[in-house]
Design goal:
Keywords: Aminotransferase, DNA-binding, Pyridoxal phosphate, Transcription, Transcription regulation, Transferase. By secondary structure, the protein is α/β, with parallel strands linked by helices. The protein is built from 16 helices and 17 strands. Helix content is 42%, strand content 13%.
Length: 468
């Protein structure tokens, strides 16, 4: 095919870099589109009057930048971003040669040496005292009864989740619980409403299970009740999936009056609610879950992962009365039962108060990091909760989020744009999400924030290579 890149080629710098940047600019302006097959190396070389080696280097540079993809036997293609944003987001950042990449791109609680010590001490204790069923269990699909009973008491007393032990189900993390809840009431092709920016895991579930996900307008408290009602009337959804506490990526958190208003809308229309409450422990007590207002039409999902240690994938799904016989077969089909050993550790820490201790410490650690972020990025628009995992940063013009992401990466800092969290193909806000827990060393975190503050305070380099 013939592509005229001449209008986009700069005379400055090496020719191969100019060609790679011209490809990025042509894509930005819509001359090229994702999924386009590019000319062969020889064809483009003849068109531009350069050597084949120059075009080869240009394509190689564009591939390193994530702009194109070389397919063996098929040529070079503009990378198709449909579904790519999530895979890129989840891919572990390639570390630099000296392991200096500072990762602010992944949701992760702070994990210090003291956490590892407590984990080892707990395992040593469990080696002596663990319930015999932990290794012998086979048939209790919903979870071992002593683990469910402890979880039931904790969910009611600490989080305010209504229900009885027979309505609690143990699952392998909140993502698993979310999938089980959705699969219980949502069929292929059904519409599910959620926040216009939401956790990438829900977007992935929509693709996997084949339901239609539609976004609802949000503000700093999350979903707007009037917008939710309008969307329900328009789309007639089967369910609404909401994160009222520390919405990922914005951190939006509903106060109780907003929760009351949202619950009234859902009750009025009789729509199933699936509440993702995975960040509940990162807020001090006082916010009651939406599920408490709608116990007969709500599934409640939470876990210990975000507020204790990242490897403790103990998820808890509370199922409305009369639905457990629909949910249990889906648990059995996906994992038979949640891993008993993980929940034996969770049960031990719930019994001795360690879960509350770890959550309290996590809130303190994150508050320290949020304060550091506010100081280092003073003067810039920043949305965050005092003990949130993330900070949501607005970029000044002429910066674009993808440009900053790429430039920050070149300087050793990994960050995330809004792209993986967009429910629908709408213009992405020019913001970036900084995750403050994955980097355990405060000095390295401060260094990363200083780099970002400097970059945001400067104009972006001209013709910056953009990762699409």
């Amino acid at each position: 095919m013939t592509i005229d890149l001449t209008p986009y080629i700069s005379t400055q710098g090496p020719k191969y870099l100019a060609i790679a940047r011209a490809l990025a600019e042509a894509l930005r302006q819509g001359v090229l589109s994702p999924g386009t097959r590019l000319p062969t190396h020889r064809e483009l070389a003849e068109t531009l009057g350069v050597s084949v080696q120059t075009v080869s280097r240009a394509y190689e540079q564009a591939e390193k930048s994530g702009l194109v993809q070389a397919r063996v036997g098929s040529g070079t293609w503009i990378r198709d971003t449909e579904g790519d944003a999530e895979s890129e987001f989840l891919r572990a950042p390639a570390t630099l040669a000296d392991d200096s990449l500072i990762d602010l791109s992944i949701a992760h609680p702070v994990c210090l040496p003291s956490h590892h010590l407590r984990f080892r001490e707990a395992l040593a204790e469990l080696a002596r005292t663990a319930h015999a069923d932990v290794i012998g269990a086979c048939r209790p699909i919903a979870g071992l009864i002593h683990q469910r009973e402890r979880a039931d008491a904790w969910l009611r007393e600490r989080l305010g989740v209504p229900g009885e032990v027979e309505e609690r189900l143990l699952c392998n993390g909140a993502a698993h619980g979310l999938m089980l809840a959705i699969a219980t009431v949502v069929q292929h092709g059904d519409v599910v409403l959620t926040e216009s920016l939401t956790d990438h895991g829900l977007i992935s579930l929509a693709r996997t299970l084949g339901f239609q996900l539609r976004g609802v307008a949000i503000d700093r408290q999350g979903v707007i009740p009037e917008a939710l009602e309008a969307a329900i009337v328009r789309h007639r959804p089967r369910a609404v999936c909401l994160t009222p506490t520390q919405l990922n990526p914005t951190g939006a958190t509903m106060e109780n009056t907003r929760r009351d208003a949202v619950a009234r809308v859902l009750e009025r229309h009789g729509v199933w609610l699936i509440e993702d409450d995975v960040h509940a422990l990162l807020e001090p007590p006082g916010l009651t879950p939406l599920t408490a207002r709608l116990p007969l039409q709500s599934f409640h999902v939470t876990s210990l992962t975000k507020a204790t240690v990242p490897g403790l994938r103990a998820g808890y799904l509370s199922v409305p009365r009369g639905q457990m016989h629909h949910t249990l077969p889906r648990l059995r089909a996906t994992s038979w039962m949640a891993t008993p050993l993980v929940f034996e550790l969770a049960d031990y820490w719930l019994a001795n108060g360690m879960i509350d201790t770890l959550a309290h410490e996590q809130r303190q650690l994150l508050a320290e990091r949020q304060s550091l972020t506010a100081r280092r990025l003073a003067g810039h628009t920043l949305d965050a909760r005092p003990s949130s995992l993330h900070a949501w940063i607005a970029l000044p013009s002429p910066w674009r989020a993808e440009e900053l992401k790429q430039q920050a990466r070149q300087e050793g800092v990994a960050i995330t744009t809004a792209q993986p969290f967009l429910v629908e193909q709408t213009p992405a806000p020019q913001r970036v999400r900084l995750s403050l827990g994955a980097e355990s060393d405060l000095g390295r975190l401060a260094n990363a924030l200083d780099i970002l503050a400097r970059l945001i305070g400067e104009a972006p380099p001209p013709m910056l290579e953009i990762v699409y």
